[in-house]
Amino acid sequence: MKRLLIVFPVVAAVFLFSRVALALDPIALPVDRACVVVLDPGHGGEDTGATGPAGVNEKDVTLAVAKKTAELIKAKTLCDVTLTRADDTFVPLAKRVAVANALNADLFVSIPVNAARRKAATGVETFFLSVDATDAEAQRLADFENSAGAMKNPSVTSDDLNDILLDLVITGAHHESARLAEAVQTSLLAGGGSPDRGVKQAPFIVLNGAAMPAALVEIGFISNKADEKRLKQEAEQTRIAQSLYNGIEVFLKTSAQLAKGAK
Ligand SMILES: [Zn+2]
């Protein structure tokens, strides 16, 4: 009896602690509900995106990383995953987010690779949509990504962006996009390797009109010789995909917790 008196409180304490830990740690919870994820490999087809000093094309890196991320989501969650392009074809920017809207997706992550004139530039940065860019460099990047297949993209004015942002603020999706961007950026940094360039905002056409949390993650710099070499290696693509997956998982689990808390 004496022994029971000691054992019971210990068992109870361990049980209680594990419940509290589960509630606090989103990683400990499974993604146990159906959801829809849309991943968007940047560029494609005639639109190669940026090309590195050794000739690696952005469009090939983005497709490889997106495919690997999709495989992880399929293997580890109950979510459906759709890629805006599953092969080397051109898809207009506006059509990419339209795919996510048509599927009523829970989240949309666009995956391009950065490029800069300054060859030493490196690191990862994640964006969510806004009319005003965080800084001149963010605006320059948005201009570059927005020029993808410029001939085929209907032009988007800042008035269009303003209208859409108004909708986003009302629906709360804008705030959720910031949370998604934070989750993905944090996870990429935890995966190691790249300097933190932060979470930023810029008027990316590919995020324009997304009816769900949407973020754009620049996974490295193809204009940087060392980054380019790294980014074309399959092991590195797998590592980045794992980090992207982890970030998406954290976002989904936190969403589930927030939904529970709101009830
Ligand atoms: Zn690009």
Question: Your description of this structure?
Answer:
It is a single chain. This protein has a single domain (32-262), classed as Aminopeptidase, CATH 3.40.630.40. It has eight helices and six strands, in the order αβαβαββαααββαα. It has helices spanning 2-24, 58-76, 93-102, 136-146, 158-171, 173-190, 225-231, 234-262; strands at 36-41, 80-83, 107-111, 124-129, 196-202, 214-218. A six-stranded mixed β-sheet has the order 2-1-3-6-4-5, sandwiched between helices. Helix 2 (58-76) links the parallel strand 1 and strand 2. It starts with a helix and ends with a helix. The relative contact order is 0.19. Residues 15-29 have low confidence and may be disordered. Zinc ion binds at residues 42-43, 49-50, 58, 112, 145.
Helix content range of the residues, please? 40-55%
What is the C-level CATH assignment?
Answer: Alpha Beta
Structural class from helices and strands? Answer: alpha/beta
| Secondary-structure element pattern, one letter each | HEHEHEEHHHEEHH
Shape by Cα distribution: globular
Stated plainly, the CATH topology is called Aminopeptidase
The CATH superfamily bears the name Zn-dependent exopeptidases
> Between the first and last Cα atoms, what is the distance in angstroms?
43 Å
Mean pLDDT: 85
Number of domains: 1
Record field, number of beta strands = 6
Strand arrangement in the largest pleated sheet: 2-1-3-6-4-5
Hetero groups: zinc ion
Biggest sheet character: 6 strands, mixed
Q: Give the radius of gyration.
A: 20 Å
Could you list the spans in which at least 5 consecutive residues all have pLDDT below 50? 15-29
Strand content: 5-15%
Total count of helical runs of at least 4 residues: 8
In the CATH hierarchy, the architecture is 3-Layer(aba) Sandwich
